[in-house]
Design a protein that fits this description.
The structure is a single chain. The chain is an alpha+beta fold and 151 residues long. The chain has one domain. The chain contains five helices and six strands. The chain has helices at residues 2-26, 28-35, 58-66, 71-74, 117-121, and strands spanning 75-78, 81-84, 95-99, 105-109, 124-127, 130-133. The strands form three sheets. The chain has a two-stranded antiparallel ribbon with strand order 1-2. The longest helix is centred in the first third of the chain and has 25 residues, at 2-26.
């Protein structure tokens, strides 16, 4: 009887550890992002966030329309969901790329003060009760927060 109980407990522990290992494997990006939730960051103007799929809220659309932009120029609807339109190279329609005579490259948002809410929060994210920072953003972990774009 005692052996059966011990075997049952050990089997449960193995299953629990296996489930934890599977979850860690499946959600490794999210786990790394959660680890960075308190990391400082600064915008390096790389444009990574401007190449992501951005779902627009109605207030994002209205903000841009009030500024004189036509909805059909920046909204792409897929299955009834409003996405920020992209150029053929995958960049946001509002992203400009620059390069100086020394070959230094940077990007600039042409609607920075009007940008969608998700762009205002990036690289920070909140998904249900989980908070973190996109660990793939090259500015995460940088100590100069003077250029932090969170408003």
């Amino acid at each position: 009887m005692l052996e059966s109980i011990i075997l049952f407990i050990l089997t449960g522990l193995v299953l629990l550890l296996s489930a934890g290992a599977v979850a860690a494997l499946l959600f490794r990006r999210e786990i790394r992002s959660i680890r960075h939730r308190n990391s400082p960051w600064r915008c390096l103007r790389c444009g990574r966030c401007c190449r992501m799929n951005v779902i627009l809220k109605q207030k994002d659309i209205e903000r841009l329309k009030e500024a004189g932009y036509r909805e059909e120029d920046f909204v792409e609807r897929k299955c009834g969901i409003a996405f920020l339109k992209k150029k053929s190279d995958g960049d946001c329609v509002f992203l400009d790329q620059h390069e100086d005579e020394n070959g230094n490259r940077w990007t600039e948002c042409t609607v920075y003060s009007l940008r969608p809410d998700i762009g205002r929060r990036y690289p920070e994210f909140k998904w249900w009760f989980i908070r973190g920072k996109d660990h793939q953003c090259p500015g995460v972990g940088k100590n100069d927060e003077t250029t932090n774009n969170a408003e």
